[in-house]
Amino acid sequence: MFDAIAPRYELVNRLMTFGLDARWRRRAVRDLRLARASVVLDVAAGTGDFTRELARQGQRAVATDLSYNMLREGHGVLVRVQADALHLPFRHASFDGITCGYALRNFTDLEATLAEMARVVRPGGRLSLLEVAEPRAGLWRAGFRLWFRRVVPFIGSLLSDRDAYHYLPASTAYLPSATEISAMLNRCGFSSVNHRRVMGGLSQQFLATRTS
Ligand SMILES: C[S@@+](CC[C@H](N)C(=O)[O-])C[C@H]1O[C@@H](n2cnc3c(N)ncnc32)[C@H](O)[C@@H]1O
User: Fold this and answer.
1) Measured from the CB, is residue 24 less than 6 Å from ligand 1?
2) Angle at the Cα of 73 (from 164 to 64), degrees rounded to 5?
3) Which residue has the higher pLDDT, 155 or 79?
4) pLDDT value at position 15?
5) pLDDT per residue over 107-150, tens digit each?
6) Where are the domains of the chain?
7) Which of 175, 155, 174, 177 is nearest to 166 (CA)?
């Protein structure tokens, strides 16, 4: 599916979020609080939005994704590795940090994937994850639902692949709660897990440190 939507993925993303995702990624990278020139793996990097932000903030970034076409669209991304996030082709403790944007709900075994991230990041290394969320109540929630469940599939059908942009909003159903994801991170070897709702719950961010 991601191979099919790769050419227009970034365009639809910008329209879907009114470009706000760029701001959320900037903050998510800053929150890693790593020294400059740290080596950071961007898991399920897609076309490299997060990877480029890492580079802009002075980190040495490596992009990895299962989809060849998504990686191929990653203009300006220097190092790209096609791999399944469940079986990352890197040695233990190879990275100072990990980022992963809007991909958690696509992993067939989320906990095993988080354990694989824990394997490749060094003790004391940092993790920053972004994922879609939903505002809790009121007009904000109603507006979000209308946008995400009706307008996004419509824009996606016009500009890209109809089925994919019906699947993407629906796939939030596969996402465990923030409490469950935090517990998974703890079980996988991360500590100081912090969950933050972004912009009233339009998005959410998890931060954690690899236990020494
Ligand atoms: C919604 S896109 C997010 C892309 C990018 N991280 C971003 O923030 O725009 C989800 C990505 O997860 C990738 N993906 C899905 N399952 C994967 C897996 N098992 N291993 C690696 N990448 C995977 C897809 O190929 C796709 O590029």
Assistant:
1) no
2) 85
3) 79
4) 87
5) 999 999 999 999 999 999 999 999 999 898 888 899 988 888 88
6) 2-134+176-210
7) 155
Structure tokens at 109: 């075994």
Q: How far is the CA of 139 from the centre of ligand 1 (A)?
A: 31
How far is the C-alpha of 157 from the C-alpha of 178, rounded, in Å?
Answer: 30
Fold held by 2-134+176-210? Rossmann fold (3.40.50)
State the pLDDT at residue 152: 87
- The pTM assigned to this predicted structure is 0.95
List strands edge to edge, sheet with 39-43: 79-82, 60-65, 39-43, 95-101, 121-132, 203-210, 190-198
Q: Is the CB of 99 under 6 A from ligand 1?
A: no
Provide the CB-side half-sphere exposure for 187 (13 A, CA): 11
CA of 122 to the centre of ligand 1 (A): 23
How far is Cα 57 from Cα 34, in angstroms, rounded to an integer? 10
Contact 145, 132 (CB under 8 A): no
pLDDT grade for 2, boundaries at 50, 70 and 90: very high
Q: Could you tell me if the CB of 73 is within 6 A of ligand 1?
A: no
**Is the confidence at residue 168, as pLDDT, over 90?**
no
Nearest-Å Rg of the Cα atoms of the chain is 16
